[in-house]
Amino acid sequence: MTAKASSDGLMEEIVGLCKRRGFIFPSSEIYGGYNGFYDYGPLGVELRNNIKQTWWRDMVQRRDDIEGLDSTIIMHPDIWKASGHVDGFSDPMVDCRESKLRYRADQLFFAPVIVAGETIGYVSVVECPEQQEIAEKAAADIKRKAAKQGTLDPIVLKDYTESKPEEYDLIPSPATGKPGSLTAPREFKLMFETKVGPLADESAVAYLRPETAQGIFANYKNIVDTGRVKIPFGIAQIGKAFRNEITPRNFIFRSREFEQMEIEFFISPNADWKTLHREWIDTCIDWLVSIGLPREGITEDIHPEDKLAFYSQATTDLMFQFPHGEQELWGIACRGDYDLMQHQKHSGKSMTIFDETSKEKYVPHVIEPSLGVDRTLLAVLTAAYTIDEVPNDKGKVEQRTLLKFSPKVAPVKAAIFPLLKNKPELVERAQGLYKKLQRRWNVFYDASGAIGRRYRRQDEIGTPFGITIDFDTIEKDGTVTLRDRDTCEQRRVTEDELFQFLEEQIDG
Ligand code: GAP
Asked: Cβ(327) to ligand 1 under 6 A?
């Protein structure tokens, strides 16, 4: 029997497991933590690196049409003027003057409570899967307290950006439950500012990049001039991004310091961009499935045309069923030639390329698949977290918690156990195999405790394979026992078979 915890409890359980087993810690925890920042512990950093390495291998090294890049986090401030971030990269926010809490206006929902045609109050609720239910219950309370007779109109929630000035004083703050303390929505700049050099005036202002994409556009010309690229081709980058999010939340889902894996895929302005966009969406879905996400947990959110940024031709977000609901995991946007044209205008440098096939010169258009490393890691954890029941050493059925990581991303690939720790022949043989495996992969050696307990410890951190050295290994044929984490099935294999199997599973 396999089960997931209820979606409410699932996030808490994942956060707890991550802390307990050294995947993820709140940043600066000894000082009480720092909202929107997280640190990755010994297992977390392995998982994170494996996700990045697998993406890099599949998107860059195993493709002939994508080149890699690693640009700086702080770049010339004019880049952010050209890209539109200095003027336009902001979120609408609303403050509660009484509680001092700040909300993203598009995540704060409100509705009038109308009974028999008369508005008798307002309800408000912070975005959550149960928001409609919560608002309806609050509206029924308001009606009851007002002792108002008549039918309650359906509660139609709108986000706070749609509120009218005359409503600001009527909508209750979700923090206090009372009206009168919410401000009008205001634009809140998301880029972190810093100063570069000894001057302290405005000319020294620089920004921590809020996306890795602009580093790609800024280097596009360098790569065209020095590489062997020909249209269509992509440039990929993995790196840190920083956003002063108003409401960082849901663990590492929305944080203030995170990492992105982005590709800018340059195409001819005359290319069939709709087909290429579709191909990229499929490539991205296939990749997510290849690292262990269930296909049925991934859906597509196609942005309606009237909600697209003026330069965007189309955007599809791949959504994933996170513990806190279905949310964006990977954005795949067709951005036309907007970015390159902006940089051409602001830098005065030509962004044209000569297309060898069509013999034309043009500024290419771009398709941009943009994925967060941390969000992918949370999706991987969500998909992997499982509770099932298996028999223990004595045959008694027990509940176990396991992480069903794909071997490709699992932090520890295999654990090596001598059956008994007080038999030097077993220990020596197990140590020998451990050292050999360690040259290729991140493996773990564990000799302490009953073998069943050792298996459980590895199951909980998602180690896909257990390898036990027993008396048959040293006295008979040299074979070892290979145990599968998910099925608990065991089979005997030779050392050659073991290496071949692990290679297929981990590096495949
Ligand atoms: N260059 C396009 C761009 O940055 P975006 O939709 O703002 O687009 C792309 O971000 C991806 O980066 C998102 O789909 C998400 O996976 C990740 N991401 C964005 N903001 C994030 C945050 N505050 N915390 C964690 N991941 C984030």
From this structure: no
* One-letter amino acid for residue 186 of the chain: R
Q: Is the CB of 211 under 6 A from ligand 1?
A: yes
Q: Is the CB of 21 under 6 A from ligand 1?
A: no
What's the Cα-to-Cα distance from 499 to each of 175, 390, 503, 505, rounded to whole Å?
Answer: 58, 28, 6, 10
Instruction: Report the b/e string of 24-62 with b at 16+ CB within 10 A.
Output: bebbeeeeeeeebebebeebbebbbebbbebbbebbbee
pTM (global) more than 0.90: yes
Cα gap 327→349, rounded to integer Å = 39
The H-assigned helical ranges of 227-337 are 273-290
**Separation of CA 255 and ligand 1 centre (Å):** 10
| pLDDT digits (tens), the chain, 508 positions | 344 545 568 999 999 999 999 999 999 999 999 999 999 999 999 999 999 999 999 999 999 999 999 999 999 999 999 999 999 999 999 999 999 999 999 999 999 999 999 999 999 999 988 999 999 999 999 999 999 999 999 999 999 999 999 999 999 999 999 999 999 999 999 999 999 999 888 889 999 999 999 999 999 999 999 978 999 999 999 999 999 999 898 999 999 999 999 999 999 999 999 999 999 999 999 999 999 999 999 999 999 998 898 889 999 999 999 999 999 999 999 999 999 999 999 999 999 999 999 999 999 999 999 999 999 999 999 999 999 999 987 889 999 999 999 999 999 999 999 999 999 999 999 999 999 999 999 999 999 999 999 999 999 999 999 999 999 999 999 999 999 999 999 999 999 999 999 999 999 8
Whether residue 328 has its Cβ less than 6 Å from ligand 1: yes
What is the whole-number distance in angstroms between the Cα of residue 2 and the centre of ligand 1? 32
Longest dimension (CA), the chain: 88
338-347 and 213-226 helices, crossing angle to 10°: 80
Pocket test for ligand 1, best of 27, 80, 83, 211 (most atoms within 8 A of CB): 211
Q: Return d(Cα 8, Cα 250) in angstroms, integer.
A: 11
